[in-house]
Amino acid sequence: MASKVKSSALMGFYPLCRELKINPVKILAAEGLSSAVLRSPDLMIAYESLAHVLNHAADTADYPLFGLAMARYQDLKTFGPLGLLAAQTHTVAESLEVIQKYFHFHAYGASINLLPPDKEQRTHVNIEIHLAPSISQEQLLEMSLVFGYNILSDLAPEFATATEIHFRHERMASSEQYQALTKARLCFGQEKDALVFPACLLSRPPSPAPEEVRNYLEAFLAQESKGHEQPLQYKVSRLIYELIPTGEATLTTIAPMLGMNVRTLQRELRQNGTEFRRLLDEVRFEIARGALEQNHSITDVALNLGYSELSAFSRAFKRWSGVPPQQWRQVSHPPTF
After folding, report:
1. Are residues 138 and 282 in the same domain?
2. Is the pLDDT of residue 225 over 50?
3. Global pTM?
4. How far lies 243's CA from each of 80, 85, 150, 317, in Å?
5. CB 3.0-4.6 Å disulfide test: which of 79, 142, 182, 320 passes with 67?
6. Backbone φ and ψ of 335, nearest 5°
7. Are 43 and 18 a contacting pair, CB within 8 Å?
């Protein structure tokens, strides 16, 4: 399977290109990418294409720190709803576990490994991006590791001064040029590409998600609204849709994302003539129909929707549609909600 990443990884590409007086659309087109990737953060693009775009932009602007400068625009909000999910844990260690566990929903073909503390009681978070050796990764790695540093700093401010960023490659500009773009301590010519920090920081409780992360979530929930406030049930459904693959599409997860407690969210949904369980069923039914139309196995569909037993999924699907999933696929019944 080819390595891919969500188009939110291009966050900051357009304003940085304009700042450097180069044409972002032309650079994307050279790699066969539409400008739609700048408007829609949830499209999947090849990691190879992202690396080529960054390298092309750096060469065109004659600016060797293009990737690192891009990272100034990227932090928890780049993960969308999963960024808020990571900020709602009890410790930074749990936050990193959430990111590590669900990172494949943001990107696959890259891996994040949280290593045990070394003899100096420092933790290493190694990052590997699996691309052909012929592809230059310096721009991509500088963007990705500083992005990771920004996430840690969002989760707890102590990380900002205590974290080192290790790169295998040598520096591509002067120390002063690097320091103008990030407060992180940068170490080049290292054994691994990694974030390194005192292990004791993992026990810190994460800070509340920054306001701009919540604003970004509001923008995510307002997509396709044409400037109008979306009803609460729409926002809940969008979050359910995003979180179902993670197994975290629950009231206790979604209510804080919307700035409510569970009872308040339940009450407001009832006032809007619905309830969380109904919205969850509607989204599950929508996802199931799409997967069945694409000939995914019924077992895979059930597991992806959070059902541990095929029989439970079959009963639920029959309740939604009037027929079992196999029969529905054969005759393509319309929804009956």
Report:
1. no
2. no
3. 0.70
4. 11, 9, 23, 20
5. 142
6. -65, 150
7. no
